[in-house]
Design goal:
Helix content: 25-40%
Structural class: alpha+beta
Strand content: 25-35%
Pfam families: Cofilin_ADF
Number of helices: 7
Distance between the termini: 40 Å
GO cellular component, one term: actin cytoskeleton
Domain ADF-H: 4-154
GO molecular function: actin binding
Family: Belongs to the actin-binding proteins ADF family.
Order of helices and strands: EHHEEHEEHHEHHEE
Largest sheet: 8 strands, mixed
């Protein structure tokens, strides 16, 4: 607990499910989350999974053509969020998957106070997300729309494709 904020058990379960890539049946793989957003509960005391704002691995190629672009569209333009994105990318040597913790810190005049509080509470979630290699604070669409910005976070100029799309 930090700043009086707790993290829901569901958030911890989602993180652990995304972090551990155990052998699974194809049906289990399809149900695994590719991306998910977290927000503060209505009473601002708990970090919770935001209902309806997720992408499942099974959605890709079915209802989702480009998971990265779809994830960007999930981000609200007038509020802050935490996100986990399971990035699939290739370097010149190999194909990789890494979880990226994204702190969507949209700075608008009407939400500045709320987002500052949100930012201060991010320690509560980060302490529980051990093993995350990549953290990314994003301050607006200009920072995240171009997939090469995420590729830079993942490995700099050695990344040649993200989500099967060349950079």
């Amino acid at each position: 607990q930090a700043s009086g904020v707790t993290v829901s058990d569901e958030v911890i379960k989602v993180f652990n499910d995304m972090k551990v890539r155990k052998s699974s049946t194809s049906d289990e793989v399809k149900k695994r989350k590719k991306a998910v957003l977290f927000c503060l509960s209505d009473d601002k005391k708990k970090i919770v999974v935001e209902e309806g704002n997720q992408i499942l691995v099974g959605d890709i190629g079915d209802t989702v053509d480009d998971p990265y672009a779809c994830f960007v569209k999930l981000l609200p333009l007038n509020d802050c969020r935490y996100g986990l994105y399971d990035a699939t990318y290739e370097t010149k040597e190999s194909k990789k998957e890494d979880l990226v913790f994204i702190f969507w810190y949209i700075d608008r005049n009407k939400t500045l106070r709320h987002c500052t509080t949100f930012y201060l509470k991010s320690n509560a979630i980060m302490r529980l997300f051990s093993g995350i290699k990549h953290e990314w604070q994003v301050n607006g669409l200009d920072d995240i729309q171009d997939r090469s910005t995420l590729a830079e976070k993942l490995g700099g100029n050695v990344v040649v494709s993200l989500e099967g799309r060349p950079l």
